[in-house]
Amino acid sequence: MNYFLMLVILAVCGGAYYEYTAQQEIILTDQQQISDLTNKTTSLQSENKKLTDDQTQIIENLADAQKKVANLTEQLKNAAKTGVVAPVSANPAPPVTYASLPGIPTPNNLGTIITQDGRAFQNCQLLAVEADGITFNHTLGITKVLFPFLPHDLQKRFGYDFQKDVAQTKAEVQYQEEKRKAAAAVSADGK
């Protein structure tokens, strides 16, 4: 009977010891994961600081470049007044704006854009207006959307005219067709 009682006590103690070691392994694993996450957090914080410093430097460089452009524009205007160079155009090309950077005076917030083909972009900030479309950044990156795919309100805002675009396309098609016919005539004469 004493042996049986000792055997039961040993079994209970063995089970408790097994549970204790299993819990210790879990604790060690959790501590290792916490340590890894702490290291990753520290690394991400240092990368974030570097990106913030880079962004600040870019903003400063952009402000310096804008000052230089303004200064050069003023010099050109003064030179045009004195007759040294041709007059500066009254409608220069619009400058590219980097609205996603803080510190730029006009943010050009476009909000949410849902294109004609059903793509949706959230938190859009205008970066550039180009001849065939607009470029903007959004929550997932940077995208260029051609004017025909923009919503009608944005087409109107940026001066896109579908009829004018169609007429221009027809003129381009006609030009390409005439060019093809001329090339065919030249090759037929050369045979």
Radius of gyration: 34 Å
**Roughly how many Å apart are the termini?**
118 Å
CATH topology of the domain at 109-160: SH3 type barrels
Q: Biggest β-sheet: count, sense, barrel?
A: 4 strands, antiparallel
Total strands: the figure is: 4
Q: Pairing-aware structural class of the strands and helices?
A: alpha+beta
Residue runs with pLDDT of under 50 for 5 or more positions: 85-90, 95-106
Question: Secondary-structure element order, as H and E?
Answer: HEEEEHH
CATH architecture of the domain at 109-160: Roll
Question: How would you summarize what this structure contains?
Answer:
By secondary structure, the protein is of the alpha+beta class.
Verbal overview:
- The protein has a four-stranded antiparallel sheet with strand order 1-2-3-4, with no helix packed on it.
- By secondary structure, it is α+β, with helices and mostly antiparallel strands.
- It is built from three helices and four strands; from the N terminus they run αββββαα.
- Among the domains are: 33 residues; 52 residues, SH3 type barrels (Roll); 31 residues.
- It starts with a helix and ends with a helix.
Which terms summarize this structure?
single chain; 191 residues; alpha+beta; SH3 type barrels; four-stranded antiparallel sheet; elongated
